[in-house]
Amino acid sequence: MGIVMTDDKPVIVFENVSFSYGGPPVLEEVNLTIGSREFACIVGPNGGGKTTLIKLILGLIKPDTGTVRLFGSKPAGVRSRVGYMPQHVHLDPKFPVSVMDVVLMGRLGNGRAFGPYRGEDKLAARKALREVGLFDKRNQPFAELSGGQQRRLFIARAIACEPELLILDEPTANLDPKVEQELYQVLNELNKRMAVVLVSHDMTFVSQFVERVICVKRGVHIHPTSEIRDGTLSEVFGTGVKMVRHDRHEHE
After folding, report:
1. Banded model confidence at residue 173, pLDDT cuts 50, 70, 90
2. Which of 31, 112, 162, 225 has the smallest CB count inside 10 Å?
3. What is the pLDDT of residue 4?
C-alpha cells in the first residue's frame, strides 16, 4: 500500500490498519502518512471507505488491527488539535444567530468551561473570520449569507479552535466554479500553517493545490496529480476533471 512521503513532521500515521463493521473489511492493511504542511485530498467511490478513514483519524472508531497515531498519540486524546467541517452542517437558517455567533461555536469544547465567551475566544473568532474573508459580515445574520459564504463561515468555525490539522468533508459540494475557486484559495492560505485534508469528488480545482491524492477503495493508494487524462479516476468520477497519475505510485 502507498504512503505519502513528506519531509515535515507527520500529523497522521496509519500502520497496517484494518477495520470492518462486523462484516467484510471496509479498510484493509492501510499504511498512510500525512505531514504537518500537507494539503491532501481523499477520493474514492461511495462505500469505498473514505468516511471510515476520517472516523479513524478523528478517533471516533478504533481499528481492528494496526495503529493510528495523530500527532504521535492516540486520536481521541488530541482531538482538540483538529478542526473538522462535516459534509452536512445542520443549522436552521431561520435561527436568529449572527455570523460571529456561529464562529464562536467552534470554541466550545476547546478546553473551556461553560459560561460566557472569554476575550481570547472572541479574538480567535475574529482571526478566523479574517482568514476566510468574512470579518466585515461578523454582525450580520447567518441567514443573509450566500451558500459560498456559509461554507467559508463553517470553515471559520472549524479553525476557531486554532487547530494544527483541518479536515473537511466535501467542502465544495454544489458550489459554482468561481465560488469553489475562492474556497480553495482560502484553504491554500490556511495550509501555510496547518495540514489540510479534504474529501472531494471534484478534482478540477483540488489538483491546483494538492500534490498527491489518496485513493480509498478498501485499500489506500497514493498518486501524484497531473493534467487531465484517462485513468482509474475517470471510471469512478467521469470525465472533465483534472486526473491523477495512476502510472506512478508512492511506496515506502
Report:
1. confident
2. 112
3. 41
